[in-house]
Amino acid sequence: MCVHTHTFWHCSLCLDTMSLCLSRSMASKTPVGFIGLGNMGSPMAKNLLKNGYPIIATDLFPESCKELQDIGAQVVDSPGEVAERADRIITMLPSTPNVLEVYTGPNGILKKVKKGTLLIDSSTIDPAVSKEMAVAAEKMGAVFMDAPVTGGVGAASLAKLSFMVGGVEEEYQAAQELLTCMGANVVYCGQVGTGQAAKICNNMLLAIGMIGTAETMNLGIRLGLDPKLLTKILNMSSGRCWSSDTYNPVPGVMEGVPSANNYQGGFGTTLMAKDLGLAQNTATNTKTPIPLGSLAHQIFRVMCSRGYANKDFSSVFQFLREEEGQ
Ligand code: NAD
């Protein structure tokens, strides 16, 4: 029995899906559409180009388009035009309103999408909107999957991202073929929206862990401990976490992390506040208690209004240091 409740071999929808899968894999180097050439999207599109996929791209910023055009991508004016020319499209946009605009806006993908097109959204957005986009895409005969990422700009450049994929399992292989050119790990999570769910859960824990590490380090320093020594002790003890051993928020403790560079680069406080807002919405909708996630959301929001919006989220350490004198 198939998902359309027909005996599998007699369901025309399933047979259509199978032949689309086959034709996509046979034509593996046909053009791939890419929409959103920002900090993450630009290196991701470059990695697809490196793997021999012709790219048809668009972005609101002409400078971002020019950079990709110079290395061989074809640039067009709107998401709709990308959809006219490519039957596999990846979107990497800031947040939910941008995704709605790019998919359902007047010049959006869904106005021009071809039947059988595979749409992969790697932006971090509300899982409920991913589900809405999947329904809207299905109405046009296309398939939508959510595939948000963990790993920052460095991982995007080195094709070391981790993708968490939600959507129809039969389409996963076709998505995987492209995602493995941009990432080291590709994990199938379940139905559409579950990739976003996994991403939101990870970032909520990351935010809580970073605030915990920052306040712990600050307390230790005030108690007279050397920050490098305290870090060494935490990292050999049960307090160890990614924020203490890989991405320490205290300037001078580690090299090559944003705290060593005045919190420039990395993962912006605005984006972290956005992801925590998504966690808060989903928790409210499912009546799930997230006391520490909610508090983390408020802390990063306050930071955004106090000049930290464009700094890396580990600047919560600096924020706490500045708060203490008040
Ligand atoms: P970004 O702001 O650098 O890039 C987004 C791009 O989308 C911009 O170039 C913008 O011009 C373009 N865009 C917006 N609306 C558009 C439209 N209507 N049409 C065409 N282009 C449009 O953002 P980013 O840092 O690349 O992040 C993208 C997504 O990845 C976000 O959802 C973010 O949460 C997620 N993410 C980011 C990181 C990171 O370290 N930066 C890590 C993991 C996940």
UniProtKB/TrEMBL annotation:
First-level EC class: oxidoreductase
Keywords: Branched-chain amino acid catabolism, Mitochondrion, NAD, Oxidoreductase, Signal, Transit peptide
Any one GO molecular function term: 3-hydroxyisobutyrate dehydrogenase activity
Pathway: Amino-acid degradation; L-valine degradation
Active site: K199
All residue ranges annotated as the 3-hydroxyisobutyrate dehydrogenase-like NAD-binding domain in the record: 193-319
Locations listed in the record: Mitochondrion
GO CC term, one of those recorded: mitochondrion
Signal recorded as keyword: yes
Residue ranges of domain 6-phosphogluconate dehydrogenase NADP-binding in the record: 32-190
Domain of life: Eukaryota
Signal peptide location: 1-27
Biological process per Gene Ontology, one example term: L-valine catabolic process
Reactions performed catalytically: 3-hydroxy-2-methylpropanoate + NAD(+) = 2-methyl-3-oxopropanoate + NADH + H(+)
Documented EC number(s): 1.1.1.31
SUPFAM superfamilies: 6-phosphogluconate dehydrogenase C-terminal domain-like, NAD(P)-binding Rossmann-fold domains
NCBIfam families xref list: HIBADH (TIGR01692)
Family: Belongs to the HIBADH-related family. 3-hydroxyisobutyrate dehydrogenase subfamily.
Identification of the protein by name: 3-hydroxyisobutyrate dehydrogenase
